[in-house]
Amino acid sequence: LRGSKSFTAALPGEAERNGHGLSYKSVSVGHLEAPPLSPSRLSLGRASSIATSTAAPEQGRPRDYLVLAIFSCFCPVWPINVVALVFSIMSRNSGQQGDLDGARRLGRMARLLSIVSIVLGTIIIVLYISLSVRGNISF
After folding, report:
1. What is the pTM of this model?
2. What φ, ψ does residue 92 adopt, rounded to 5°?
3. Rounded to whole angstroms, how far apart are CA atoms 95 and 100?
4. Do 119 and 96 meet the contact criterion of CB atoms below 8 Å apart?
5. Residues 6+ apart with CB under 8 A from 92
């Protein structure tokens, strides 16, 4: 036996069985005309708050910083920049699979590691050049 997906409540003029003065008409589940008035009647699904939806509108696909990660691979800090490249690729894959929160998180980590790699690489290159000009290091 299949249960019906519609319900019927008291219409105006009909005797009400539960003592409430609200009137409803017969509708199908999922096609309610007005949102529920009580917070206990709200959907259990995840809904965005008004502050989130107005302050940060959906901006599309999150950035994966792949170009920055590839550029950081030219710096002499290989363990860090390779990890940045891996995080960038993971961010791109998460975005393609629809996990936007994970893609943003992984993208931010790829950006951070790429910047750290570029800064440390620049410091290493400057130190190497300055020491080799003084004659302390030979090519």
Report:
1. 0.55
2. -65, -45
3. 5
4. no
5. 64, 66, 103
pLDDT tens for 12-52 read 555 445 555 545 454 455 554 555 554 444 444 444 444 44
Q: How many residues does the chain have?
A: 139
Q: Render pLDDT for 78-133 as a digit per residue (tens, 0 to 9).
A: 899 999 999 999 999 999 999 999 999 999 999 999 999 999 999 999 999 999 98
Tokens linked to 43: 């959907």
Q: For Cα atoms 77, 79, 82, give the angle at the middle one, nearest 5 degrees.
A: 100
Dihedrals phi, psi of 18, to nearest 5 degrees: -100, 0
8 Å CB contact between 64 and 92: yes
Cα 91 to Cα 87: distance, rounded to the nearest angstrom? 6
